[in-house]
Amino acid sequence: MYNSTNTHRKAPQSLDDFFYDPKICFVGATTLPDYYVKFTDNRDVGVKVGDLAARVLRRPEVTEFSLPDIAKEVGVSYQGEAATADVVVASEMVFSDEEIKDVLTDGYAYYQIGYNLLTSL
Q1: What is the mean pLDDT of the chain?
Q2: 111 within a domain of the structure (yes/no)
Q3: Do the strands 26-27 and 46-47 form a parallel or antiparallel pair, or are they unpaired?
Q4: How much of the chain exceeds pLDDT 70, in percent?
Q5: Is residue 4 part of a domain?
Q6: Does 7 map to a domain?
Q7: What is the pTM of this model?
Q8: For residues 45 and 19, is the Cβ–Cβ distance under 8 A?
Q9: From CA 13, how far away is CA 110, in angstroms rounded?
């Protein structure tokens, strides 16, 4: 289905509701991946983990910290190395077990950091 006002396909309402729910704060990835952009004009959905930590901890230098360092500052156990691979459409690349583990570890760390920071307010 195409929206007559622009060239983007209309995303399912449930997906839009999820991404733009004001009660949800995405921490870590702050823009939607390229494959979702075809559905919407607005890519911004979250807050960078360093920006959130810097504001809550009132320490501006934290914005430049690595994910493992931010986790340490917030008291979260980080069990891996920061993943550096860009997110791509799954059909374009086969991920190794190690890459999958790194991405999942980072995702869980973002959740724990965000949860700890937001519940401390």
Answers
A1: 76
A2: yes
A3: parallel
A4: 66
A5: no
A6: no
A7: 0.67
A8: yes
A9: 26
Measured CA angle at 72 (ends 69, 78), to 5 deg: 90
Could you tell me the residue range of the domain that residue 50 belongs to?
Answer: 13-119
Confidence class for position 120, pLDDT limits 50, 70, 90:
very high
Q: Is residue 24 part of a domain?
A: yes
Distance CA 110, CA 10 (A): 29
Q: Token digits for 8? A: 């983007």
Amino acid (one-letter) located at 74: V
> What is the total count of domains within the chain?
1
Contacts of 51 (CB under 8 A, 6+ apart): 63
pLDDT at 2 over 50: no
Tens of pLDDT along 27-62?
Answer: 876 666 665 556 566 666 678 899 999 999 999 999
What type of residue sits at position 5? Answer: T
Task: Look at residue 16 in the predicted model and tell me its pLDDT.
Answer: 75
Residue type, 61: E
